[in-house]
Structures are given as structure tokens and as C-alpha cells.
Amino acid sequence: MVDMTALDQFDFHDRLGGTRGAVVVLFVAPGCASCRHWKRFLLDYASTRSDLGLYQVNVQQDMALAHEFGVFHLPAVYLYLDGRFHCELQSEARRERFDVALQEALLAPSREAP
Fold this sequence. Notes:
The chain has helices at residues 12-17, 33-46, 63-68, 95-107, and strands at 5-7, 22-28, 52-58, 76-81, 84-88. By secondary structure, it is α/β, with parallel strands linked by helices. A hairpin with a 2-residue loop joins β4 and β5 (84-88). The chain starts with a strand and ends in a 7-residue tail after the last helix.
């Protein structure tokens, strides 16, 4: 079963820095319906891909991380690759669209972290 591990400002950089492969970080808020939809979507999506890790950040509990990343809209979806920030993912929460966005992002050079 796939799980989405919660991160906070105290373990965010250490945990992600120690990961290998592709990792999606979802910034959410408890009252955000779109956030709940994205979380369900990503859990289902990752259940078919053993090569994709999932993490989430609750911006109501960790305003410092939301500020660090300049999160102004929720949900916000970021891709990390081999422990380093790679890019923000822009996609619909639909498998075929997310597949394309993820593959394009993985092939593109990494961007500077916000």
C-alpha cells in the first residue's frame, strides 16, 4: 500500500535530501477540497509506480515552508529528483495528463529551487 508521508519544517530538507529517485511533494491545507482530490489522485497514481515517492506538507502547520516555497495557491505540487528540487509540476489531476507532465519534467533540466 502506498502512503504519503507528512513532512514539516524540521525534517523537510533532511528527509528529501536523503531520497533517491523521483519524489512528489504535495503542499496542502486540511480544508482544501482540491488538495484532498490531488492527494487521492497521487496515492492512486503512485500505487501503480513503485519508483515514485510521495510526501505532503500541511501549510497551516508549516507556514515557514509555504513561505520558503512561495506557495500562493493550493494544492502545489513539486518534484524532487535524487534528493534535490527539480521543478514545480503543472498538470491536471488526470493520469494521462500527469504522466505527460511528469515525463517531460524528468527529461528537462532541473530548475532553481524557489
